[in-house]
Amino acid sequence: MNSRVFRILYVLCLVLSLSALVRQARLYAHNCAAINDGQISDAGELKRIAITFDDGPHPVYTKRLLDGLKERNVKATFFVTGEHAEQCPDIIKRMHDEGHLIGNHTYSHIQLTSSNREKFSNELLKTSEIIKSITGEETQYVRPPYGLWDKSLEAQLNMFPVLWNVDPLDWCTSNASKVARSVIRDAEENDIILMHDYYASSVSAALMIIDELTKEGYSFVTVDEILFD
Ligand SMILES: [Zn+2]
After folding, report:
1. Eight-state DSSP code of residue 112
2. FRET partner for 120 with CA separation of 20 to 30 A, picked from 13, 25, 94, 178?
3. 196 near 167, Cβ under 8 Å?
4. pLDDT per residue over 164-202, tens digit each?
5. Ligand 1 centroid from CA 13, angstroms
6. Which of 140, 130, 141 is nearest to 57 (CA)?
7. 31, pLDDT greater than 70
8. Is the pTM here over 0.90, yes or no?
C-alpha cells in the first residue's frame, strides 16, 4: 500500500472516530439533561406512578373521570364499595373493559375494629362476589377503609392490602387546584396517590395532576405494577 492511500485511510478513520465520539457526547448530554429535568429515571425509563380512587363508583363523576382517563390513555386503580358497585354495574364493567384495575373497599365502607373481624371479612367476600359477577374476574386487592387492616386476613381471604403514600385529603375541600398543587408538589417515582372519584372537584384535580405529571415524565400505571414489578 503506497503512502498516499495509507494517509487517506488514516484521515478517514480519524474522521469516523471523531464523529462517533461527538455522537456519544451529544447522547450523554441529552440523557443528563433529561434526568436533571426529571423526565426519565436514572435507569433510563419513564417514572412510574399510580393514581387510585376510593369510594366509587359515582353515577356522574366516575363517568367523567373515565372519559378523561380514556382521552389521556391513562390507567388507574379503583377501590369500589360493593354497595356502589351494585348501583352502577355498567361503570364497573366499563372500568374493567378500559383496562383499569378494580379493587375491593368493603361493601358498606366498614372500618375494621377489634370486635368486627368476621363482619369485615364477610363484607370483603360479598364485594368480591359482586365485582366478579360484573367483570368475570376475581379481585385480589383491598384498600381497607381508613387504612386499618389485619395481616392474618391476607392468607385467610387471599387478598392483598394496598395503602398509599400521597394523600391530598381531596374529600375535605372543593378547591381542585389546591388538591392538584399538593399532589404535584409531593409526587415521586413509584408513589401511590389516594383520591376519591365521589366528588366533582376530585375528578377535576385528578385530571390536572395527570396532565402535569405526564409533562414531567411520569407514566401512570395500575398499583399491581408498582407493588410487584
Ligand atoms: Zn374510603
Report:
1. P
2. 94
3. no
4. 999 999 999 999 999 999 999 999 999 999 999 999 999
5. 67
6. 130
7. no
8. no
Residue 110 CA to ligand 1 centre (angstroms):
9
Please name which of 196, 197, 179 lies closest in space to residue 187, comparing C-alpha atoms. 179
The residues assigned a catalytic role are 54, 196
Q: What is the CA(228)–ligand 1 centre distance, in A?
A: 23
For 61-181, strand residue ranges (E) read 77-80, 101-104, 141-142, 160-161
DSSP string, 133-155: HHHSS---EE--GGG---THHHH
Task: Say which residue, 98 or 229, is predicted with more confidence.
Answer: 98
CA 168 vs CA 51, 97, 172, 175: distances in Å: 12, 28, 9, 11
* Residue 53, phi then psi, degrees to nearest 5: -130, 125
Residue 198 CB coordination number (10 Å): 19
* Ligand 1 geometric centre to CA of 17 (Å): 61
Mean pLDDT of 42-58: 88
